[in-house]
Amino acid sequence: MSRFNATTPETELVAAAQNGGGQAFAELVNRHKRLALSLAARFAPSRSEIDDLGQEIFLKAYRELPGFRGESSFATWLRTVAVSCCLDYLRKAKRSPAAGGLELPLELPDDSKISAFEAADIRDSLNRAMAKLSPADRLVITLLELEGESVETVAQVANMSKISVRVRAHRARGKLRTLLEDVYGTET
Amino acid sequence: MAPKHDWLQSIFLTARQVVIDVAPLEDGFENRVLARLGREPRVAPSVLGLIPAWNPAPVFAALCLLVLAWTLFAPQAHLDFMGGALGLFDMESLGQVLPVNLQHIGMLS
């Protein structure tokens, strides 16, 4: 039986995984898989691709783990790795995936004023429009607007300057406004 | 002036509330990651990785300087050889004319 479990401190897990401890790394994966899969679901279109991208994130994390110095939390560092993986995924995709997680159920807050059907409709329209953005612009607007990250955090995890993040976000919003105007622009 | 209602921000806010439920993928996920790690080839330095990084710009500049120096100061035979090798222009004529011209401007004694 593994000596690592849900109560093992994260620093201990990281140190053991850095020395090649597979069980320690498995526990780290177990603790942070939702973070990686949720981000992957913002970009990958199908269940199998989300799973694959999620695995890629942890494979990259394992390869780069020796360079992790513990200057930030493991979750923050993993998020940087995940963002880099998602950007690579978008760049390698022959054409930008149109929608994230179509085959997976949606979760809505209890006090949501819209139905699951309306939510899915909005998500699909937005995803189709997002697919027409460049990979870096799509990444920036997803992190800022859908993940609710700050400009500073996006700049840090996406390895861009804050100005570059603002410029990309501005450009992406303009393009999305044009693409979605026919559908939603006249409703207000 | 009251801020204009931004329909795009409303879409973002709605989309932010919609979370894709990844729970169906979480089951056994760490085992799949470990299985893939097991199949990964060990990272070995490739032959290309052993070549130290180099910048072609200074090498190209050094070659240009060498050619220039050769053109200016090399004996006739060398100029003919280089002209033939490069095939760019009539080095025989250049070889005869250039030293004379350089003598005129004081670059060759």
Description:
The complex is a heterodimer of chains A (188) and B (109). Chain A has helices at residues 10-18, 22-41, 47-64, 74-92, 116-130, 135-146, 151-157, 162-185, and one strand at residues 106-107. With 188 residues, chain A is an all-alpha fold. Chain A has 2 domains: 1-102, Rna Polymerase Sigma Factor, Chain: A; 109-183, Winged helix-like DNA-binding domain superfamily/Winged helix DNA-binding domain (Arc Repressor Mutant, subunit A, Orthogonal Bundle), CATH 1.10.10. The longest helix of chain A has 24 residues, at 162-185. Chain A starts with 9 loop residues before the first helix and ends with a helix. Chain B has 7 helices and 1 strand. Chain B has helices spanning 7-17, 23-26, 29-39, 47-50, 56-73, 76-86, 91-104; one strand spanning 19-20. Classes of the chains: A mainly alpha (188), B mainly alpha (109). The A-B interface holds A 22, 25-27, 29-30, 33-34, 37-38, 41-42, 47, 50-51, 54-55, 58-59, 62-63, 100-101, 104-109, 112, 114, 119-120, 122-123, 125-126, 145-148, 173, 176-177, 180, 184-185, 187-188 and B 5, 7-8, 10-12, 14-22, 24-26, 29-34, 36-37, 40, 43. Strand 1 of chain A pairs antiparallel with strand 1 of chain B.
